[in-house]
Amino acid sequence: MIAGAAGLLGAGVVGGGVWAAMSFFGTGAQPAEALPADTLAYLAIDLDPDGGQKIEALRALNKFPAFKESVGLDADDDVRERLVELISEDAGCTIDFAADVEPWLGSRFAMAAVEVDDAPHPVVVAQVEDADTAETGLAKVTESCGEDFGEYTVSGEWVIIGESSEVTDAVAADAAEARLAADPEFTKWTGEVGGSGIATAYLSAGGMRTLVEGFTGLGMVSSGMPRAYSNQPAVHTGDELPGGEEPLDDEVVVPEGVCPDMMSGEPPAASLEAFKGAAASLRFDDGDLTIEVAADGSAASLPEGVGNAADAVGALPADSAIALGFASADNWVDVYVEQLKALCGPEFDEQALFAELSAMSGLDLPGDLQTLLGDSVALVLGPDFDVDDESLPLAARVQGDGAAIQAVMDKLIQRVPDLAGFLGTTVDGDVAVLGPDADFRDEVAKDGGLGESKTFRDVVPDPEGSIGILYLAPDQLTGLLEMLGDPELSANIEPLAGIGASGKVDGDVLRGELRVATD
To answer: What is the pTM of this model?
Structure first.
């Protein structure tokens, strides 16, 4: 962790000032000029973007009582002063903004992770309008805040703040040799998200390796299996964990004999070496917030023959409160099996795994599971959900072979009769709907037109070809909010018109978008 300004800044942002900072993330990647080309991770922020963006941000954020009460910013306020106040409060020191900061501090800064002497170090880069005045002001801030502030190096139009002068001097020297702003991978990935937005973040190939290595080194589970290789679950053999422990949420119990040599699996080193980078941008437009993400998928085990999540989600009832849809794929089982092989090693017994699961469920796996997922699946919660109501407006709509899905469900219920009351099935041609309430299933089986509703189109403007879609309509959740009984939560949800997220595979690029629309 950065000692000093970097740490204080992080504390200030997290401790209540996050929206103040997020609102004014910068248009431009100028702080990248002060960082070396091999920077691991980067987040650029502008505290004074052009007037249009500032007004758009405040127009949206001031609709939320929590922001207005805790941050209280107007269009003509100096956001830098408010952020310095937050840092001072969290650090327990006194910083005179007008005398010691305002004369030299610019509007742009960045938080970054850099590699110095083969180890990652966090730093903060801030724009400097006058180097001599900055040296004087920083000396006063350091005197007031003490060793918590850390050490710094002023380099041209930037000050680099970190845990030691050795780190900050090295960053300045490395940036002089090769700047992040000119790095081809940095410019490629920030370009994939439309260039610099109100906020711009970047993760390099080296940053991904460092992240994965950090997770891999978090410790060992009781079986001796590393807790994670990237996003892979821990694996245990047998029906129980050693010592009678309960499995954790991200652990998988594999039947005895399926995974005989759990220590032979290797981390996906080849995939990590091939990863080229990722970026994200944040923008405000007409009162709506948009976050766009792009990442390299060239080395990923991507499914083939992926369906279209928009088929199932778009046909849900127009008044749906929550919808979550995903596209199935022709080879999704093969992808999953390959992931298990990476954990279990070459002796992984695929046939033993599916034989055991088939015996437990009464299904013919993996074929029946592929049938149940069809081409796409959408989970939906209906409007005005009431936990006390006997009818539960919850269902899964599957685009696929309706008759075949019904046959699979019949086998499952025959094996587990208790599921009959919760997993009824309604079939209408190439649509099968699973859920506890027959009337709601019938409604979901029809083409309800959610995909053509204005709110859906506002937050998921281009759903076609999506492999995943999430949609929330807060105005349809009044029953749930009343059940929670939190007036502050209700007041801060009320300004929301809708929330939508979608993901796509675009050649070798994985794309995602999140939109938050306000009334």
So the answer is: 0.79
